[in-house]
Amino acid sequence: MEGRGVAAGKSAAADLGAYICFEDEAGQGLRPPKARTWAPRGRTAVMRARGGNRGWASVAGVVCFTPGGRAHLFYRLHMWRGRNGERKSFAWTGYPT
């Protein structure tokens, strides 16, 4: 049996009209990056950064394909600021649907 572009030699998803989905989650801390600056000799440069060096941003996404159809992208952004009782990561109910 000849493949239909979904996977070489595999056509079960194409025959069923099923979606093939890929999911991933990534996170990024919100701490400002360290930087260098110039100052007169003997005087330490002071650079102020707001935000208290806490926080985290996570994004989860799902991309789904179906043979002969358009691709679908679903994503959700989750922010964590370090407050009491706040979840740092996605719950299973928080993933894109």
Question: Can you tell me about this structure?
Answer:
This protein is mostly beta strands and 97 residues long. The protein has a domain at 24-32 and 48-85. The chain is 5% helix and 30% strand. It is built from one helix and three strands, in the order H-E-E-E. It has one helix at residues 12-16, and strands at residues 20-29, 56-65, 72-80. The longest helix is centred in the first third of the chain and has 5 residues, at 12-16. The chain starts with 11 loop residues before the first helix and ends in a 17-residue tail after the last strand.
Give keywords.
5% helix; mainly beta; 97 residues; 1 helix
Class of secondary structure makeup? mainly beta
What's the Cα radius of gyration? 23 Å
Helix-strand topology string: HEEE
Low-confidence residue ranges: none
Task: Let me know the number of strands.
Answer: 3
- Measure the end-to-end span: 34 Å
Give the percentage of residues in beta strands.
25-35%
Q: What overall geometry do the principal axes of the alpha carbons give? A: elongated
How much helix is in the residues? under 10%
Number of helix segments? 1
Strand order of the largest sheet: 1-2-3
* Mean model confidence by pLDDT: 78
Question: How would you sum up the major sheet?
Answer: 3 strands, antiparallel
